Amino acid sequence: MDLWIKELNPAQREAVCHTEGPLLILAGAGSGKTRVLTYRIAKLLQSGVCPYHILAVTFTNKAAQEMKERVSGLIGPEAERIWVATFHATCARILRVDGGFLGLDRNFVIYDTQDQLIVVREVLRELNLSENNFNPRAVLATISKAKNELIGPQEYEQQAADFWS
Ligand SMILES: Nc1ncnc2c1ncn2[C@@H]1O[C@H](COP(=O)(O)OP(=O)(O)O)[C@@H](O)[C@H]1O
Ligand SMILES: [Mg+2]
Fold it and tell me: Most buried of 10, 17, 114, 127 (most Cβ within 10 A)?
């Protein structure tokens, strides 16, 4: 077995060498999970998997950065071609590349909470609706809820049964 495999304990080795089907690892902080993931990536590359066929999703940007650095340290510059990013960054990247199939401009802009409030306030002004009756944050929450339920503008309009909607 490869030299670096020696740097893993038996449970880690088992996880790194698992190749077919999904694998769930539950372990405490500092117990060696990230080491498993980085060595697993190295092992996949070594066995001939294309770097850009590997996707590592992390919860925070900081964790993504750490993961990138640790994989680079292990396998060198080839690590640059692996997808390592947060869930949001990964989805944004996919949409920048292939969003055209959904009718998205590849230069789309992502509005943060502040941008969203500005737009809703503008819309309310245009519609002559008072912010006292239509709280912009409540409007945003309603839009967000519809999006979570995959209800688009046209469908929402058809379902709208009261004045607020
Ligand atoms: N089998 C091992 N032998 C020696 N050191 C290890 C081993 N596994 C992990 N470590 C080290 O222990 C520390 C914590 O490991 P890490 O993979 O970051 O844990 P986690 O992601 O679970 O918090 C790191 O410094 C890592 O290099
Ligand atoms: Mg970790």
Answer: 17
